[in-house]
Amino acid sequence: MLDRLHNAPELPPEIARRRTFAIISHPDAGKTTLTEKFLLHGGAIQMAGQVRAKGEARRTRSDFMQMEKDRGISVSASAMSFDFSGYRFNLVDTPGHSDFSEDTYRTLTAVDAAIMVIDGAKGVESQTRKLFEVCRLRDLPILTFCNKMDRESRDTLEIIDEIQENLAIDVTPASWPIGVGRDFLGCYDVLNDRLELMDRADRNKVAESIKIEGLDDPKLAEHVPAHLLEQLREELEMARELLPPFDRQAFLDGTLTPIWFGSAINSFGVKELMDGIGKYGPVPQPQAASPRPISADETKVMGFVFKVQANMDPKHRDRVAFVRLASGHFRRGMKLTHVRSKKPMAISNPVLFLASDRELAEEAWAGDIIGIPNHGQLRIGDTLTEGEEIRVTGIPSFAPELLQGVRAGDPMKAKHLEKALMQFAEEGAAKVFKPAIGSGFIVGVVGALQFEVLASRIELEYGLPVRFDASQFTSARWVTGPKAEMDKFINANKQHISYDHDGDPVFLTRLQWDIDRIERDYPALKLSATKEMMV
Length: 535
Hints:
Largest sheet: 8 strands, antiparallel
Number of helices: 14
Helix content: 25-40%
Distance between the termini: 21 Å
Shape: globular
Strand order of the largest sheet: 28-25-27-26-30-31-29-32
Number of strands: 33
């Protein structure tokens, strides 16, 4: 990433108090529950929903799609803004399920830090590893939260060891658990020398905090049973010898992660983690762009679209573009240039998100995430500026791993199907390819569950039942190269050629042999499994 922190300019106070971060984890580590508790502590909601609870209590605020509510999983990234102890938090909850990882990858281009949630019993799981690699590519600072400590979990040093070995990052304890499972009492706050005690009776209650003078303070014995206190002192002594102390610069460089222990469902450890983000987290960072990077302290407004969500409000056929502001002070009604089309756009109804609720945004600053309702003008990767021709770079689109044909249940509604598919393609929910020969569409996704989500959304949002059929093709590659070579290649391989929703040619393949053949016969052409979403 850019040399971002060592010689960063002083930011205006409004921008300096912004903290924009994503929450990443393997499915079921408790990410959405943690998001709920963040909103609770930020005063944004009165009572946190639960992913698995009954009736009305189960409605988590950050899962707004019908399918998310039915299954208790997140399948779409959602953004929330709220204030907490003088800081403005912009939090993005991402899907943990690997079938939706592309949404998560794109979201990570719009944040300055990430919180990695780990299950205390399961440790580092496969999806955590994948997402961590993306953070590593972007040098994102990472805070770790080890969740579910009130259930039977692994030895603390063993968990830390596993993170260090699997993810090749130094770990420093920000807190240390006292007891595990049924004996879990709370944590010793290493950074602030405090004892945090968990209240098991009220899940929405903030933990009791007792200020102490180090581990030898006699006050400790009043709250912690002797055998657990002895164990805590032994373990912390060992940890201090084996693990590095907290170093903010190493954390901001992405080489060290502080770890907090807690139980999100019991609201325990959440406030300490939030304090940590506020106190140590990065301010809005420079954004990679062409022909030059964008710095957060610039006075002109610049922002980029990292996600498009259609039909968030089922009563209106709207599309909301999620825009991360990279610089400046945005005010409602401003005219911004849409760099791809070179046309001005008046942003008259920008919204701030609180999960599924929205409010009109009168103003926003660099680091904030706002929603711009539009009818398809804005796409993922678009840049909005106050006139300058500058384009944000590095927002990826990945080749699909599964391809299927799609047909409307009612053949008379083929036109409606095309409209629905194009909308999902622009949203980044699927790749839609129009074959050069024949009719119909081929839909490509990263994971099988996406086909189910698409079918359910097309039916719910467009009243259109659809069928997916097996396709003869197994993968897709974008093709680029000199025009003469491209024309020759397309004419010779018509049965393999399709066009994506931007009109770019795509080579659909059955076997690796197809790719090898093209690379051998057309050395001037480039076959690519990713396409940068910038125009």
